[in-house]
Amino acid sequence: MNTRSGGAATTRASSRLNRSTNQTEQPAAPVRTTRAASGLRLAEAAAKKTTTRAPVARQPLANHNTAEAKSAPAKKAQTKATTVKVAKATSTVLEGDREPIKVRVVVTAVDDVQLLRQNAQAFLRIRPNLSDGEPSVAPYIEHLSDASVRMVDPTQDNNPTLAPYPRFRPSAAPASAVYTFSHVFPPATQQSEFFTKTTLPLVNGLLNGENGLLFAYGVTNSGKTFTMQGGNNRSSAGILPRTLDVIFNSIDGLQSTSKVPVSFTQSWQYRPVRLHGIELEDSPLPLDVAGIFSRGPSLAHIHSPIESEPVMAEVLAEHLKPSSLDVDADPTVLKVDRNYEYSIWLSYAEVYNEKIYDLLADVDGSTGNNNATMSQRILLTRKALSIRPSPPSDSPDSTTGGKYVAGLRQIRVNSAIEAKNLVKLGQLHRRVFGTLANSQSSRSHGVVTMRLLKKHRGEKDEPASYVSARLTLIDLAGSERTKHTQTTGDRLKEAGNINKSLMVLGQCMEVMRANQRRIAQALGGPKGERADTRDVRKNLAVVPFRHSKLTEILMDYFVGDGRTVMIVNVNPYDTGFDENSHVMKFAALAKEVHTPAPIQHPFPRIASPTKVSGIPQAPRHRQVTLSTGGREGRKFSETQVEVFEEDEDEGDASDSDSEAPPNPLIEALFDEIDSLRLQLFEAEERAALIEAETREEITREMSARMQEMEKMYAKRLVKEVEQQEEKADAKIDMLHRAGVFGRTPGKMRVDEEEDEDEEEMDDVEQSIVKDEDANDDDESHVPSRSSSPLANKGRGKSRISEIRIAVPSGPAHCVLPTDESEAETATATETETEPDSQVDEDEETDEDDGDYREESDESDEYEPEPPVQPTPKAKKRPSPALNRFNPSATRGLPPLEQAPSPIFERDVRGSFGAGERESFGKNTKKPSSKISALASDLNALRIASSSKDGSEEWDMSEDDSMVLPSKKAAKKAGPAKRKKYVSSSSGYGCRR
Ligand SMILES: Nc1ncnc2c1ncn2[C@@H]1O[C@H](COP(=O)(O)OP(=O)(O)OP(=O)(O)O)[C@@H](O)[C@H]1O
């Protein structure tokens, strides 16, 4: 017989509230009371009967922070009180003007404020270094305070080749960031302390009828399983066993024994079903079940699931020995209301590859291949469970809905040891595969739910008398990315699904946070105005809980009531900085989620997202090896377990009939959406993988190139600095020599310079001779030369058709006079040189060689002019550059520029082509004084040449790029007296 509570399956609290409301003879008020609030039902209901309160003014949101600062219990009490006031207010308003909308508004507003005050808590736990001795690398997480840490990318400063230049960061993660948590636990934190600060409040809440959720998040090997379940050492029990200890310590002697006798030998008991429901046990339990439990942890007798799989029990007995289970028990006892009787029910599910399995379920086991080496083979078949929306009949006072895992066993446990044994059995059922990252890596999300039923001793034994609350502890799979674990095949798919569910979890939090902000903004209007959040609520984004199984089964915690605690595990030693940065960002997001975002949509019945409509899926087959013994002289045994995983069956849930018949069209549409979402997700994942790889490749190349460039620039910088230093030295020397600071540094130096000048002179002479020869050869090819009116003049001894000034490729030299008169001369010559700008202009007007040649041809038409005598000025003040040709009169100086401008060098050598010359003309915005000096040289040469045979004179036309000091005189003489300064493609030359 299945005695269902059906529509009567309301909690006592809600029924009393309804009764109270009904006293006004109104339809059931749309009051949203929470299940947690039902813990106060007696006192609250009594208060309602006796007092009439004014409607509660909505709390301004500005007080949010102040409210947060209050202690948790105080806050909870306040929340409950507020709820009661609202309930009363509802009643009052209904009695007054019978306008239900107003009531709704009040309730909604108060709910918003109330929910906004619920903060998700995030605790950070830093894993200690596990290697012997000092860690190979320093941890990159710095503990700043009890609530904050700083994470600095360890690769930022460690690369000496890059310092002090900023590193090109391939990652989007900030190189340094401070993260804040509710509390930060350093590596040395003991398990007991950690449990007390993070989980004990949740356990306390559970015993008081509040829901709670705690999950551990982090990359693989960061200590999630250690935190949740514990280690092998004494006192290293984790959160889960300690929670069980504290619960049973606290309800010791208060456990419910009430049963409904159905026959002389059998009795029934109320049990929790689905998400909120309570009903009589489907299958009768033997009356002496408690006695069986008390006989100890013999697996074969613990409970029916184990009994039905004796093979498993036998094989796993080794694993499930009580060993340290009871000696490592947490002694904490919490104060509970002793007027109640309690019962605890445990379920253990696994979300693996986007399918949910019951880890405590019967599995069809059979053995095979037994042999003498203790090697066994077990074939297990297990079936995936489906998720169903919680029927409204389970919780008529809840509008938030929620989903439950249909067919998930909830097993009653009477002691901590029993519970721990069940958990251990579940852990062995849980799929544990090794990856490269962690040989014992959890590849699934393990979800342990403790359900508490409590009933006041004075109440009748009926479903309405029971208060139900849940505490769910989740050991999430590692959040590492696939490429870091080098997973392939099945492992790759696992990793993809793990990441998917964690990603969706993050997305849900993000959407909830956005929704919360919108509600907060709506509530934060001008003071005194009643905020109507209905419109805002209607337009809230749908939180994508449906996108993954994990979020679907956790939905109730986010949209319903209860507290959420997130534990963030990080391993700052051998986990990548980027990986942990993602974890930290996720934590920051989760911490900001204050309130459940109400879902306005009904929850339709869903199909498995992995199931493509119409295509039956073959059961998945996997193989695991379980090893036992091997220590302390015991025999080593190995068991091969083959697992067949069947897809969930829509019709297998015993309670499926409690749901409303689904609309086939909606079903089909949801199936379609799910299948499309899956395809989209897979495509995105593929794209993300490709993108990540491409980015990484480009990043590597870029980094290498950047490094090369940085090195090159560094070298250049050093060279430039050296050159500058030498230049400065040279200048100082020059000034010394010029007598500004005194006499020249020494004779040695002068002699050296004289030698250099001699060499220079040799070069010039050689160049002249060479050019003469070349000109002899080329003359016929250069019409301008052959047609020059002066072409045949002076042939022979002193015939110079083109003069090139060759300057050594080394540093340019500057000649300074050694005595005062010379200095004066030099200064005067320099000042008399044509302005630079004039040279520039002239040069820029010469577009190409053709122009020159044209002019040259024109010049051929000129009549030979009588030689013009050099200007007295030029004679009187010879260019200092001319002194180069007279070593005895020259006073050399150290190099002025170690690396002369290439433009200047080419100019002097006259060896560049037309294009280069053009660019020279354009680029030389400000010709140096050396160019002017060179012009003076040429003029001096002209004078010297003229003085040799006394019949020829040289001059430069205005068209030429260089205007000689004698230009003024030539201008005065008229254009006819001017000669062209001819530029050929092979360089500058002076024609006569
Ligand atoms: N606080 C701690 N103190 C001592 N040892 C620890 C601590 N945290 C973790 N360890 C050790 O680090 C190793 C990895 O930890 P654990 O298996 O819990 O990682 P995990 O995050 O659960 O990895 P996975 O996600 O792959 O399951 C284990 O050997 C565990 O005993």
Quote the average pLDDT: 61
Q: What is the overall silhouette?
A: elongated
Measure the end-to-end span.
130 Å
Number of helices: 30
Helicity level, as a percent range?
40-55%
- Estimate what percentage of residues fall within beta strands: 5-15%
The poorly predicted ranges are 1-117, 159-169, 284-313, 365-375, 432-439, 482-486, 595-617, 630-635, 651-659, 744-748, 775-865, 870-927, ...
Structural class: alpha+beta
Oligomer: single chain
Give the biggest sheet. Answer: 9 strands, mixed
- Strand tally: 25
What is the C-alpha radius of gyration, as a whole number of Å?
47 Å
Keywords: Hydrolase
Protein name: P-loop containing nucleoside triphosphate hydrolase protein
Defining key terms:
hydrolase, binds adenosine-5'-triphosphate, single chain, four-stranded mixed sheet, disordered C terminus, alpha+beta, disordered N terminus
